[in-house]
Amino acid sequence: MNKEPAIVSVVIPVYNKRRYLRRALHSVLQQTEQDVEIILVDDGSTDGSLDTVYDIKDPRIRYVRQSNAGVSAARNTGVKLSRSPLIAFLDADDAWEPEFLEAMLALTRRYPSAGLYASGYRVQVAGQPARPARVSGLPLLRRRFLSKDYFRLSTRGELPISASSVLIPRRVLMEMGGFPEGEGMGEDQHVWWRICSRHAFAYDKRYLSTYYQDAAERTCPANVPEEELAFSRRLREELPGLRLSLWQRWHAYRYMGAHLLYLSRENLKAGKTADAVKLLQDQRTRLLPLKWLLRRLQVAVAA
C-alpha cells in the first residue's frame, strides 16, 4: 500500500554550503509541522556539502546530486521530484523559525485561492545583529492578509518575499514554468512577479525565516550588472498582456524603475558612472519620487 504524500515538500538547493547546511536542515526538522518530505538537491558542490548531513538519519530526507547548473535548475529538480501539493523553498544557508510551516499551512486554509504564501523575514549580515526586512506599506492592523499589491509592496523597500520565506502550490509552479535557468541574479523575482500578477498572495507578517547574508557573499563591484536584469525585461515585455488594474500597472512600472535605480546605485558604488547614468535615463526611473531618487544617489556617491 502506497503511503500518502506529505503535506509539504521542502526543496533545499545546495551549492558549496558545507558551513551552513546543517543549520538549515535542523531548522526544517524542528518545525512544529512534521508532515514533510525534504529534498536536498546538490548542484555540483565541490566542498562536500552533503557529507556534513549524511549522519542525520531521517526517512523524510532525500538526497539528490546533479551537475552544476545553477540554483534555478536545482529548485526545478526538487519540484519535479516532489510528491506533495505544496512546495516550500529554503536556501541552504538560511533558516526557518519552528512555526514557519505551521503558519504557511494556516494561510492555505484561510486563503485557499492564493497563488503564493509568504512570511516576513529577518536579514542577518555577518558581524551585525539580525534585523527585520525593510518592507514598506504592509497593513498596520492585520497580521495575516490577502493582497494583489505585490508591485506596490516591492517598490519602496526590500522585497516582501524572499527565496526562503515562501510556500507555493505545486500546480501554480507548473503553470508558471518554474524558475528560469541560466540566470545568475533575479531568477526568484521572475517567479514572484509572474505568480502575483495572476493570483493574489497571502502573507503572515511575523518574521519566520532568516536570510543570512555573509559579507563575503555580497555582490562584488566587478560583478555588478550594467543592464536591466532578465526578470525585469520579461515583465516589461509581458506587461501589456497582463490582466492588471491601472493601479497595479502603474506600480509594475515603478517596480521596474526601482530595480533600475538599485542597479544605478550599485554601479555608482563600483565606479561605473557612465553605466549608472545610462540606467537613470530610462523613463521608468522617473516614476519614483524625486527626493527618494536624489537621496539614493547621494548615498551611492558618498559610499
How would you describe this structure to a colleague?
The protein is of the alpha/beta class and 303 residues long. Helix content is 35%, strand content 20%. The protein contains ten helices and ten strands. It has helices spanning 21-29, 71-81, 100-110, 150-153, 170-176, 187-196, 230-238, 246-269, 273-280, 290-302; strands spanning 8-14, 36-43, 61-66, 86-89, 95-96, 116-125, 131-132, 144-147, 166-169, 201-213. Strands 1, 2, 3, 4, 5, 6, 7, 8, 9 and 10 form a ten-stranded mixed β-sheet that branches. α6 runs parallel beside α7 (230-238), α8 (246-269) runs antiparallel to α9 and α8 (246-269) packs parallel to α10 (290-302). The protein starts with 7 loop residues before the first strand and ends with a helix.
Strand and helix layout:
Elements: E1 8-14, H1 21-29, E2 36-43, E3 61-66, H2 71-81, E4 86-89, E5 95-96, H3 100-110, E6 116-125, E7 131-132, E8 144-147, H4 150-153, E9 166-169, H5 170-176, H6 187-196, E10 201-213, H7 230-238, H8 246-269, H9 273-280, H10 290-302
Helix pairs in contact: 6-7, 8-9, 8-10
